[in-house]
Amino acid sequence: MTKEDVIKKFTKIKGLGKVKAELLYNNGYTSMEKIKNSTLEDLIKIKGITEKNANDIINQLKDIKVEKSKEAKPKKATKEPKKVEEKKEEVEIVEQTDKEYRVKQKPDLNKVEKEKLIKRKQIKRRTPKFIREEWFRYKKIPKNWRKPDGITSKMRINLKYRPSKVRVGFRGPKEVRGFHPSGYKEVMVYNVNDLEAVDPKKQAVRIGGTVGTKKRLEISKRAEELKIRILNIQV
């Protein structure tokens, strides 16, 4: 039984999404039985799972136990082979628990930059979606933004009940302009030599789309040695 199958099973529990299911798997919970046998304190220790989540999981698994026992009573002969199958599944899963969850690298930011990043998030939440003028009128007009023009354009002269235009007021703070949401400055990389000029405390790397698989592996290996974060590769 693969990791994906186990995570699918976990996501059937209410309140467990893909991310939390993967966290459980990475912390050694490779089957439903292991979660059932765990205590509330064990589940809370996992980063990302709250006390409420842990309570919900434990309560739901108690209900599942009762349902299974009722269904299993009339079928006495089929009990033994089912247990054997479950044991086999567990053995297969244990072999795949080599990877441990690693916290993503974070940049060294000063107090002003941290405040401005928070402010930028707040601005982004209230920023409207900029839509092209009269996108709804014709099928050939896409929704992507274009500046309105023309003498009779109502949107150009800012009449009421028209979509918002791109303006200076919607722009983010100057200090963090062009920063990645993580707080790093993005640097494009196309070969291993480009990594030497990168500052791992302030800058993160994005590998170019034209770079092949062989070079990507070389870059990621060298980046690990230099402790540089790569933005477009999942670690």
Task: Provide a concise account of the structure shown.
The protein is mainly α and about 240 residues long.
List the helices and strands and how they pair.
Layout: H1 3-11, H2 18-26, H3 32-37, H4 40-44, H5 51-72, H6 79-94, H7 111-126, E1 185-189, E2 203-207, H8 213-226
Parallel strand pairs: 1-2
Helix pairs in contact: 1-2
Written overview of the protein:
The protein is mostly helical and 235 residues long. It folds into 3 domains: 3-94, Orthogonal Bundle (DNA polymerase, domain 1), CATH 1.10.150; 102-126 and 174-235, no CATH class; 131-165, no CATH class. Helix content is 41%, strand content 4%. The protein has 8 helices and 2 strands; from the N terminus they run H-H-H-H-H-H-H-E-E-H. It has helices at 3-11, 18-26, 32-37, 40-44, 51-72, 79-94, 111-126, 213-226; strands at 185-189, 203-207. A two-stranded parallel ribbon has the order 1-2. Helix 1 (3-11) packs across helix 2. The longest helix has 22 residues, at 51-72. It is extended and about 70 Å long. The chain starts with a helix and ends in a 9-residue tail after the last helix. The model is unreliable at 65-74 and 87-95 (pLDDT under 50).
Describe the largest sheet: 2 strands, parallel
What number of structural domains do the residues give? 3
Which structural class is indicated by helix and strand composition? mainly alpha
Question: What is the CATH fold-level name of the largest domain?
Answer: DNA polymerase, domain 1
Instruction: Give the overall shape.
Output: extended
Q: How far is the N terminus from the C terminus? A: 23 Å
Rg computed from alpha carbons, rounded to a whole number of angstroms? 26 Å
For the largest sheet, list the strands in their spatial order. 1-2
Order of helices and strands: HHHHHHHEEH
The helix tally amounts to 8
Low-confidence stretches: 65-74, 87-95
The top level CATH class name of the largest domain? Mainly Alpha
Give the overall average pLDDT.
80
Find the CATH superfamily of the largest domain: 5' to 3' exonuclease, C-terminal subdomain
